[in-house]
Predict the 3D structure of the following.
Amino acid sequence: MLVILLALFFVLIALVSGNNLSACTGAIIGSRITSKRMGIAIAIAGFVAGLALEGTFLKRGINALMPVENNLLLSEAFAIAIAIFLLAHRFRVPLSLTIVFTGMLAGFGFGMGMNVNALFIALIAAFWIVVPLVSLFTMKPLLHYFTRKLRKGHLWKKVSQIKLWLVIISFFTSFTLGANTLGLLFASVPFSYWYKLATAALAIIIGSIFLSEGELRRLGNEIVSIRYLNALLSQAVSALEVEAATLLGVPLSNTQTFTASLYGVGYSYKARLMQRKPAYVIVSIWLASVLLSFLVAFMLAKL
Amino acid sequence: MSFLKDFLQGGEEGIFRMCNRIVELAIKANAEAAKLDKDITKIHEIEENSDKVVFEIANLITSGGIAPNLIDDMLALIDKEDGIVDAIYNFSREYARYSLKDAKAEAKVKEAIVKMNAFADKALQLLHKMQSSDSIIEVKKLRSEIELIEEQGDEVKDALFDYAYAQEKDFKDFYHTFEIAHLLDDVLDNCEDSADMYLTILSSLIS
C-alpha cells in the first residue's frame, strides 16, 4: 500500500506542478522577460524551496479535515484527484488541486464519522470565498497608486525595476505554491521528511518541464493581455494571500487567487476588452470539483 | 547571468534608440528635400536606407525580448516613422516631376514648401528628443508641441488648397499643387502619429 501511495504521490505532485506553473511564472515567460526555460527553472526552484521550508505547515489543515491517518483512503484520494486532474488537463482548464483534494479529505472525514474540525472547515471556506474577492477589489486602487507613482522619474530605470521585481515575485509565488498546494499533499503522506522531499522534487522537475504547456498558453493569452505592472501586482497580491493562508495552515488555491487578481486588473481599466467565458468556465469547474470530490469521497468512505 | 543582463538593459529602450535612426534619416531626407533640387538620388538612397533599418528593427521586435502585447504597437510605430521618410521621398518625386507654368504660382508653392519643410524639421527634432527622453512627463510635453506644429502645417496646407482652387489652372497644375500640399501634410501627420504611438507604448509599460 505504501508503494502505491508513494507512486500516486509522485504522479500527483508532477501533475500539480505542471498545471500551476503558468500561474507562477507564466507572466515572465509570456512577456518575454525570461526565456521559457529560465521561467520553468525559477518555478522549480520556488516549488522545491517552498516545500522544503514550509511544506509541513499544512499538517494543521490535514488534521482538521481527516484527523485519523488512513493510508487506503489517502491512496483513493490521490487516485481520484489524479483522475479528475487528467480530465482537466485534457481540456486545459487551470483546475485547483487544493480544492479537489481538500474536498475529498473532508468527504472522507465526514463519511468515516471522524471528529472533523468544523470551525477549521469554516475558516477554509471563508478563505476560499473572501480571498479571491480581496484579490479582485484590491487591484484597482493598487494599480492606480503605482501608475501615478511610476509616472515620475526615470522611466527606463523603473521599467527595469518592474521586470526585476516581477522575477522575484514569480519566484515567491512558486515558493508559496510549493508551501501550500504541494505542501497539502506533502503533509498528508506518512513517509519520512527527506524521503518524500526527494520524491516530490523529482516529480516537480518532471511535471514542470513536461506538463505545463497548455496552461501557460491559456493564462498567458486568453484571459488578459498582461502588462508588466499588472502581472507584478496580481502575482504579488496572490502570493501574499497564499503565504498568509500557509502560515495559518489553511489550504488555498493559488490558481484561484491569481485568476481573481488578473480579473481585478482587467476591471480596473475604464476601457476594457476581456473574455468572460474563461472566467465562467473556471469558476464553474471550481464549484463542481469541490462538490464532486466531496461527494465521491463521502460515498467511498460509506462503502 | 545573460537573462539578468537582458531585462536590466531593457529590450524596449534599445528598440526606441534604434527607432531614432529612422528619425535621423528622416531629418536628413527633409534637409535634402528643402534644397528643392530636381535630382532626388540622395533622397532615394536615404529612403532605401530607412527601409533597411525598419526591416532590421522589425526583426528585432518580433524575435527579441519584447512582450507580445507591445509587438503590434512597436511595429506600427516603426511603420509610421518609415512613412515619414516615404512621404518626403514622394514629395520630392512629385516636385521633380513637374513645374508649374505660372512663375507666380510656382513661387507661392515654394513658399508653402519652405514653411512645411521648416515645420517638418522642427517636428522631427522633437520626435528625436522624445525617443531619447527618460521622462514620461517630458514625452507628453513634446507630443503636445508636435501636435501644435501639425496644426500649423494644416493651415499652410489649407491655404495652398484655397490658392489652387482660386486659380484658373489646367488639370496638371491643379493636381500638382494639390498633391504637393497633401504629401507635405503627410510628413507632419506621420510625425504626429508616431509621437502618439510612442506615448501609448510608454504608458503601457508603466500602467
